[in-house]
Amino acid sequence: MTSKTDDRTATPMEGIDDRYQSLLRRVHVDRTTGRMLLLTVLTFGLFAALNPRVFLNPLNLQNIAVAAPEIGVLAIAMMLAMLTGGIDLSLVAIANLSAITISMTYTAVAKDDPGLAESLMPLLALEGVLVGVAAGAVNGLLVSRVGITPILATLGTMQVFNGIAVAWTGGSTLYGLPQSLADLGMSTVGGVPVLFLVFLLVAVATGLFVARTPAGLRAQLQGANPVAAKFSGIESSSVLMRTYTVAGALGGLAGVLFIARNPTASADYGASYVLLVIVIAVLGGTNPAGGFATVAGVVLATLTLQVLASGFTAMRLSAYEYAIAQGVILIVVMVTDQVRWRRRRGPRRSAPSDAAVPPNSHQTLNSGRQS
User: Fold this and answer.
1) Which of 88, 102, 133 is closest to 261 using CA atoms?
2) Closest of 344, 36, 333, 63 to residue 188, by C-alpha
3) Closest by alpha carbon to 128, among 105, 112, 159?
4) What is the pLDDT of residue 27?
5) Which residues have C-beta within 8 Å of that of residue 197, sequence separation ≥ 6?
6) Of 166, 144, 312, 325, whose CA–CA distance to 239 is shortest?
7) The dihedral formed by the CA atoms of 194, 199, 200 and 206, expressed in degrees to the nearest 10
8) Quick one: pLDDT at residue 190?
9) pLDDT at 6
């Protein structure tokens, strides 16, 4: 009779424990996004208080919304590469190559038929994205098929893409692009820049891709545990190839945003963006070792860093001081994550051995004794 009574009381407690653990997992995800939301509000409030006349100027706020998309799209692409346990250092070079291709193609067509060149704006934008797809596929081949470490593979392709851009342009700045694309970069909908709306659409689509599609779930598993992914029947090479190709496509789209916002193209545009997008991805909750990322966190981190850059400008601080701030933020976030991870692992190591027993195992053992 005693064992039956124990079984009856153990079952509801186990159910409560399961629900509690599930709630904790949800709270952990919310904390990642909540932390970034709080940091964004605090950063905005700090600079608004220090120099409200300049920082809260409507033109300055609009500039923040216009400048954020190109960096944000690159950060989302970096997040995808990090999700699989890798990294893509060539994203800025891909974006510049995309912008240069658009400008060179437009200029070549406009020499003979300016009207035709202007009407080709949608195709030119698509061409820029396809350049990113091709470059991302090269990265994917090197990482997935050849087996080169991602940081070395993309470091090499970054140099190659930069070299192609410099050789193609002769190191000069290009100015040709469709006027309709430049107008799109300056247009707004309800006071919100169109480029910012494009950024939000990319974020939503990427979030759905990561969380709701089999390909996104495979990428998460690949980053969390490549060995488990292999024994689960997941082809790592296909996952990596797909992920780096999508990241390259986003890099190509960032190139379209580059030239839409600033009607020029050059090989050295956004030279400081590589570190910046890494900082944004990690600050937004992406695990550099792979397996976990939040698109909402990356979006908020993008806004936070852009607000920080605008605030430094309003306070008349130099770009070098902003670069120092980026490095400090990256180090602080990494140290904080490591401390949190070690604290989380500590109690698990010291826990009693029966704590790891599945919830229903005690009930199974009791039934065995009764029989």
Assistant:
1) 102
2) 63
3) 105
4) 41
5) 189
6) 144
7) 150
8) 87
9) 44
Q: How far is CA 213 from CA 77, 123, 220, in A?
A: 17, 28, 11
pTM: 0.82
pLDDT for position 97: 96
Q: In whole angstroms, what is the distance from residue 173 CA to residue 165 CA?
A: 11
Evaluate whether 192 touches 258 at the Cβ level (below 8 Å). no
- Residue 355 is classified by DSSP as G
| pLDDT at residue 1 in the model | 45
What local confidence, expressed as pLDDT, does residue 67 receive? Answer: 92
d(CA 296, CA 212): 15
- Ordered by start, the domain boundaries in the chain are 69-339
pLDDT < 50: residue spans in the chain = 1-17, 19-21, 23-29, 349-371
Residue type, 211: A
Q: Beta partners for 193?
A: 188
Residue with tokens 């990256």: 330
Q: How far apart are the first and last CA of the chain?
A: 13
CA proximity to 194, closest of 98, 69, 92, 305: 69
Rounded Cα distance, 66 and 17, in Å: 47
Please provide the CATH number assigned to the domain covering 69-339: 1.10.3470
The answer to whether 120 touches 106, Cβ cutoff 8 Å, is: yes
Structural element, H or E, at residue 220: helix 214-224
Q: Are 123 and 195 in contact (CB under 8 A)?
A: no
